[in-house]
Amino acid sequence: MKDSQQSEQIEELKQEEQSENEVVASPAPVTVRTYKAKGRVFGMSVAVLAIWAALYIVSSAIPALPVPGMAGMITINAIMTAISGMVLGPAAAIANAAGGIVSMILFPYGFSAGPLGFLTVTMGGLVAGLLMANKWVLAAIFELLIIGSWFVNPQSWQTGMWMVPLPYSAVALLVIVIKPLRDWVRKSIITQHKVWMWPAIFLMCTTGHAAEFLTTNTMVNWMFNLSWQYWVPTLPYWIMVDTVVILASTIVGVGVMIGLKKARLPLFTSTLEQ
Amino acid sequence: MMNVDLKARSSPLRVLDGRTKLIALAVIFVLVLLFSHPAYIIGLLAFVMIVWVVAKLPFQMLKDLMSYFLVIAIIILVVQIFFYPGTTNLIKISKPLPAIGFSGFITLEGIVFGIAMVLRLVVIMIVAPLMVMTTPLPELMLALVKLKVPYRFAFIMTTALSLLPSIQNRASIIQQAQLCRGISYDSGGNFINKLKASVSLMIPLILGAFRDSQTLEVAMNSRAFGAPTRRTFLLDSHFSTVDIIIIALSLLALIGGIALRIQGFGTY
Fold it and tell me: Which of A109, A119, B186, B209 has a CA-to-CA distance to A57 between 20 and 30 Å?
């Protein structure tokens, strides 16, 4: 009697073991999109984007350069926009837009385009971010849209107006479209090459800043109908201002990229490496 | 560095829903871009000024805003007065200078168009603070969410706002530390020094803030940010009868403005 009970128990144990093994051997469950994925935008955490937006707002309160002929002054947020694309990738557009909307409300002197001023910094982050993510076709489309919107305005067909978007927008377009140049810029930034990182970041900042300033110029031109007599003579002056902003962005950008990587903090290029 | 004041002023406009104010703001913005005749823009400006008085906002703020935009206003006026292609000659300045596109005369059309563009700038610049100064920012964010702006975007905005004081505090600490190291933030310094000062502030500020973002991310994940549940809000807003009337009037004004523009009115 005892033997039969023992054999039954053994049988039950064997069956249990078998069923456990079957569970282990069953095909892996289909991976579902977890809620954590919703906490990310283009690979960057929403927390990082919120922090960037806050930094952007604070930097809008720090006047850097008083600029005659422009609404108020250039604030440090111009530097933030130029470097945002390589730090955050395409998500920079969202962080810049959020920061831009709030800072436009709190510190309106940096935005000559009024309530739509946030679009300028959004475009700056978007084009540079798409380039960094190697979505070059989209980046080129947006850059061409920005350049095109300048030329759609009848004012832009006046004498010499074709020169206004040229200096840096042409450089930006070349960086986006020419594959070896684009790859070299991205690789130098991702690998943080000691020497080539500097010119690469300069070109990346040029792309971001060019998208921003041309959007601003186009919007101001549509709103206030400024003719070539304003744009063409002041062109050398604007080139100088843009060069200063891009150079400052390059210095800050190199420091930030090296610092973030060394401290193993969230960085868009890290997601690319993975 | 300026400190941010996130408190909305007490004003009769505060009772209005944030969405109502956003819609009214958008309508005024579109209308001011639609018209280029000074009479129409003066009408809009008068309306905005009346609302400014009703909202009990300080006129000092208007003066401050104007001082920021004075230079660009003067440039817009001068460019239009001298170079707008007009036909009614008023004052002869010089011989025609075709190389710079100057007819030699100041024309009536140039003056009128220049005034219209300056008035447009004034309306554009004062209309946004009018709405924002009478709406607490959390209500503004709620209004954006209710207008179907993606929640993650509204979250980024609200979180950025709530982080502002701590980041401003961090920035001033870094400034103090850099001052101890001999870096001058004095506005009277030369340009290179200003640039150095900006760099010495920005890099530690960004790195420190990114370090904080990791804590924030852990907190968000532990609260299951993005979990598929129906989100509720501490604040809630509903349209009152006044809101509905204002929205209806705004939309009517927009349709009327577009109709006028199509009929050929509103331009000079």
Answer: B186
